Amino acid sequence: MSMKQILETVRGFDGILELAPAEGSEFPEVAWGDHFFYYAPDGRIPQRTQPFATIVTKDYPGDTESELDPPDRWRLNIHVGRARFAELTGEEPRAAHSSVDFGVADTVLPHPVYRAQGWIAIVNPGVRTSTIATDLLRHAHEDMRRRATR
């Protein structure tokens, strides 16, 4: 599954606000080229919530275990909640840092930094993970939409 396919899928969800910081924007340089997805039908960045999914295209300070700096490596991150996290990874979100190889591609993994908050990560989603990635994105969007409309 290409990044373009994921972007097209998420952009098709209702009420989506996509932040895609680029060179010259008001966002920090480290975020340039990445994508952050919110449910925000009013078109404004929610002030008290995190995105429901992100795509990162490079290593960040303190988040290098996925080895995203080489060309054509990127990571889809999705907030799935703690219960779904445990189902998907077989681990508890708040468990000690496991011996997972966070650089393995096309595999649902605990997020290397935000696992305790119920985030999973998929480096270069492909044949094995494209269906589950799409399903998880839809559920994450729906969860955020439901929370926002309460």
Describe the structure.
The protein has 150 residues and is α+β, with helices and mostly antiparallel strands. The chain has one domain. The protein contains three helices and six strands, in the order H-E-E-E-E-H-E-E-H. Strands 1-2-3-4-6-5 form a six-stranded antiparallel β-sheet. A hairpin with an 8-residue loop joins strand 5 (109-110) and strand 6. The protein is globular. The model has no long low-confidence stretch (mean pLDDT 95). Pfam families: DUF6194 (PF19694).
Topology:
Layout: H1 3-11, E1 16-19, E2 35-39, E3 53-56, E4 75-79, H2 82-89, E5 109-110, E6 119-123, H3 130-148
The biggest beta sheet reads:
6 strands, antiparallel
Q: Output the helix-strand order.
A: HEEEEHEEH
Number of domains: 1
State the helicity in percent bands. Answer: 10-25%
Mean pLDDT comes to: 95
Give the neighbour order of strands across the main sheet: 1-2-3-4-6-5
Estimate the global geometry from the Cα principal axes.
globular
Please state roughly what percent of the residues sit in beta strands, choosing from under 5%, 5-15%, 15-25%, 25-35%, 35-45% or over 45%. 15-25%
Uncertain spans = none
Over all CA atoms, what is the radius of gyration? 15 Å
Q: How far is the N terminus from the C terminus?
A: 33 Å
Number of strands: 6
Structural class per helix/strand content?
Answer: alpha+beta
What's the number of helices? Answer: 3
Précis, in short:
With 150 residues, the protein is an alpha+beta fold. 24% of the residues lie in helices and 17% in strands.
